[in-house]
Amino acid sequence: MYKILIVEDDRVIAQALASHLGKWNYETKCVDDFKNIVDEFRRYDPQLVLLDIMLPFFNGFHWCQEIRKVSEVPIIFLSSANDNMNIVMAMNMGGDEFIEKPFDLNVVTAKVQAILRRSYSFQGTVNVMEYHGAILNLNDATLVNKEQKTELTKNEFRILQMLLENVGRIVSRDSIITRLWENDEFIDDNTLTVNVARLRKKLEQIGLTQMIRTKKGIGYMVEQ
């Protein structure tokens, strides 16, 4: 499930966007603190931002520049100020798309879907994996769940990725060891046990308790 941060001070528009995108299985959050938008961005860690231009305190151009200092996340500008200068400014500040108000919610959704496909897929290879709202980023080996984020080691990442590729099925210990051994680092049964224990601890720290099940004498699995 992709997370979308909505930076819109008109509560009616913000809630309409959140409600509509929610019907398409996107997780959304509407910004409440317009003085500290970057702080909310960091805490929520979204995959896309919908950003109004006319905002309290500082405009959307300012916040786009601030977000660009810490992230390359796609940003879609929303504005009734649709003259060419504003469109050019939006793109020059780091925006990826410009949608004119008033807009059709279905058009916004279509543009969101298109940008997410371009940003997180390449030749059919998806760069994130989702499990019950938790997002595993395949680019930087991080896992995010309910605004909490943890960084995984190479082995922890490979174990979790393999289990998520086989949700609902048992993955044998031998199969996992073979996968981990691809990096030419010697992995034995005890090493696997230690890595799984460390991975479980990190999962628990971000609220994913009992995500990995042990099938005694066989291997591990993530249930559907």
UniProtKB/TrEMBL annotation:
Which protein is depicted?
Stage 0 sporulation protein A homolog
Per the record's keyword annotation, is Acetylation included, yes or no?
no
A single GO cellular-component term on record = protein-DNA complex
InterPro entries referenced in this protein's UniProt entry, alphabetically: CheY-like_superfamily, OmpR/PhoB-type_DNA-bd, Sig_transdc_resp-reg_C-effctor, Sig_transdc_resp-reg_receiver, WalR-like, WH-like_DNA-bd_sf
**Residue span(s) of domain OmpR/PhoB-type:** 126-224
Q: What are the DNA-binding region positions?
A: 126-224
What keywords are annotated for this sequence in UniProt? DNA-binding, Phosphoprotein, Transcription, Transcription regulation
Q: 4-aspartylphosphate: which positions carry it?
A: 52
Q: Which SMART domains match?
A: REC (SM00448), Trans_reg_C (SM00862)
For biological process, the GO terms are: regulation of DNA-templated transcription
Gene3D superfamilies named in the record: 3.40.50.2300, Winged helix-like DNA-binding domain superfamily/Winged helix DNA-binding domain (1.10.10.10)
Pfam families per the record? Response_reg (PF00072), Trans_reg_C (PF00486)
Boundaries of each Response regulatory domain copy? 3-116
Q: Which CDD domains match?
A: REC_OmpR_NsrR-like (cd18159), trans_reg_C (cd00383)
Alphabetized GO MF terms: phosphorelay response regulator activity; transcription cis-regulatory region binding
What function does this protein fulfil? Answer: May play the central regulatory role in sporulation. It may be an element of the effector pathway responsible for the activation of sporulation genes in response to nutritional stress. Spo0A may act in concert with spo0H (a sigma factor) to control the expression of some genes that are critical to the sporulation process.
